[in-house]
Amino acid sequence: MSETAIISGQGLGYAADGRMLVDDATLDLAPGTTTILIGPNGAGKSTLLKLLTGEVKPSAGSILIDGEALQAIPAWRLACLRSVMAQHARLAFPFSVYEVVHLGADGVGRALPRQRREALVAECLAAAGVLDLAGRRYQTLSGGEQQRVQFARVLCQLEAGRSVAGRQVLFLDEPIASLDLCHQLALLDMARSIAARGVAVLVVLHDLNLAVTYADHLVVMDQGRIIAQGPPAKTLDDALLRQVFKVDLSLSRAPAPGLPFLLPQQHRALPAA
Amino acid sequence: MTIASPAPTAMLAPALASLIAGRRRVAVFTVVGLAFACIVLTLVAIGQGAIAIAPGRVAEILMARLSGDTTLLEGRDVLVVLNIRLPRVLLGLLVGAALAVSGALMQGLFRNPLADPGLVGVSAGAGLAAAATIVLGDRFLTGMAMKLPFAVLPFGAFCGGLASTLALYLIATRQGRTSVASMLLAGVALGALAGALTGLLAYISDDRQLRDLTFWSLGSLGGASWTKLAAVAPIVLPLLLAMPFLARGLNGLMLGEAEAYHLGIPVQRIKAMAIVLVALAVGASVASAGLIGFVGIVVPHLIRLAIGPDHRLLLPLSALGGAILLVAADIVARLIVAPSELPIGIVTAAIGAPFFLWLLLRRSSALDV
């Protein structure tokens, strides 16, 4: 896989306050693949994502983007290569929804004509289902609506960067945390359709059932380490659930696609380790 | 784009288009309105004073000077306009623009609508250096005592502002990254320290020094001259010229530093540039016109209320608004106790402080997330 991977992280480590938040993590993001990162709180999922986006520098290991060291790529070119939706996005001043989404096209899409940029923003607003909010002030939106607007902005940057960079990566850190079920599914469907046209997509998720449903490649993290990775059906099992998520539950198999799923109905608390 | 469903785009695009057009109309209206107000106020300000000159005559003199037509340039009013009033009004325009743009930049950088050049220690440092020049100057520099303190004061203030900003920047920078939060906190601490030292200087000063200190700390455009203008303009202009470059970066920074980096903005370079340019511009302003408060808070906020927080418009319109406010305040300062004149800082503070309180009261509804 490492020949075709767009981003390749080798033996990544990141220490803060004497604790390894990420320890010896090796991960490839391949074009056309939706990689989903799961794990308990504090497992290092967001930190690993921040390492791969270049936001923080690894204290160990190396990251290559199409064979080039991440550190050597200037911010403007990275912005064309990858788009990032972070967990929390607060806005300092009351921008309108339209302006927020437009930020995605401002820098990366500088070479595009103005009409094209405006059309792009409109398309992304529509794609994220927030076109009717375009004139609203961002601060007055609900948490879920804000999250959809941020998704639209990230889409906009990805689309604008497409004219510059051929191979792209999309990072989504818990993108559905505040969304209702309908919008959760819509956003993940869209992430998959973006992957289908050749983008490498990395999503951090908490919902195991959604993770299993949408992942091509499932990565399980615990205490800074990657415990298991592979196709979801082969990666998740009862022992892993006990070990990583500290729940005593049995996976079931759905009849049609045969994917594992979890009904947290007969949950008993595990004795503290 | 393949992912967008075409139907809703086609249906709602006109609504979006009219939204964009509406915003553009407001922006154009504001730009034209402010530019017109600025020109009118400039003519009025030049005409107003002990020798009253009609705005029409002022415009005539200025046009004649610009076109090099010397036949019209005769009479006492020409001398008054070109040698006394024009440099004063131009200094007012320049200092007002510098203070307002500096305020807008600091607010964008700190992601805080209440930030001001005073906050990062520029004013406090400049004030301390100026106080030291006034009070200690003729004790330690006896050889030059005849020229002191007024020759050295502007230079001292400028260096003080620059030095305190540099100190702050070094304190808040670790491993090449400048923490905006620690800079804010360090700015408050250094400001308090500079205030205490300035107070100490006031305590040991004699009556004449205390009067100088008071007058300078309230600000005035009274000392304007072409020489002073020529010294201030080259220091303030880089800030005004850098506005288009800084605007895009500051817009990205509204989402946070990490997001700005993800958007491809050179965050560290923007921060360093903004801080240095503000230190230079405010240092030069304080050096040439004393401490003039609240322009940096009031103007950007009013502009934001009119056209929104987009820095590509906010910065140039703040420059225009700041220029207008300071020239208007100078007219008031000269009118209110004519033939004497009030320190301009009193006027801007009298407008600014109640406005600032109103801003704080409104803040929860309008500016908080």
Q: What can you tell me about this protein's structure?
A:
The complex is a heterodimer of chains A (273) and B (369). Chain A has 273 residues and is an alpha/beta fold. Chain A has helices at 45-53, 75-81, 97-106, 114-127, 143-162, 181-196, 208-214, 232-235, 238-245, and strands at 7-16, 19-29, 34-38, 60-65, 68-69, 82-85, 169-173, 200-204, 217-222, 225-230, 247-248, 252-253, 260-261, 268-269. Chain A has a domain at 90-165. Chain A contains nine helices and 14 strands. Chain A has a six-stranded mixed sheet with strand order 6-7-8-3-9-10, with helices on both faces. Chain A has a four-stranded antiparallel sheet with strand order 2-1-4-5. A two-stranded antiparallel sheet of chain A has the order 11-14. In chain A, strand 12 (252-253) and strand 13 (260-261) form a beta hairpin. Chain B has one domain (23-361): ABC transporter involved in vitamin B12 uptake, BtuC. Helices cover 77% and strands 1% of the residues of chain B. Chain B has helices spanning 6-47, 55-67, 76-110, 122-140, 153-172, 180-204, 207-218, 226-241, 243-253, 257-262, 267-289, 295-307, 311-336, 344-366, and strands at 173-174, 177-178. Chain B has a two-stranded antiparallel ribbon. Classes of the chains: A alpha/beta (273), B mainly alpha (369). At the A-B interface, helix 2, strand 6, helix 3, helix 4 and helix 5 of A face helix 1, helix 9 and helix 10 of B. Chain A: It holds the Pfam family ABC_tran. Chain A: One of its GO terms (molecular function) is ATP binding. Chain A: Residues 7-248 form the ABC transporter domain. Chain A: InterPro entries: AAA+_ATPase, ABC_transporter-like_ATP-bd, ABC_transporter-like_CS, P-loop_NTPase.
Mean pLDDT of chain B comes to 83
Can you tell me the CATH topology of chain B? ABC transporter involved in vitamin B12 uptake, BtuC
**What is the chain-wise order of helices and strands of chain A?**
EEEHEEHEHHHEHEHEEHHEEEE
The class by helix and strand makeup of chain A works out as alpha/beta
Pick out the low-confidence regions of chain A: none
Q: Give me the count of strands of chain A.
A: 14
> What string gives the helices and strands of chain B in order?
HHHHHEEHHHHHHHHH
CA-atom Rg of chain B in angstroms = 22 Å
Function (chain A): Part of the ABC transporter complex HmuTUV involved in hemin import. Responsible for energy coupling to the transport system.
Family (chain A): Belongs to the ABC transporter superfamily.
Keywords (chain A): ATP-binding, Nucleotide-binding, Translocase, Transport
Pfam families (chain A): ABC_tran
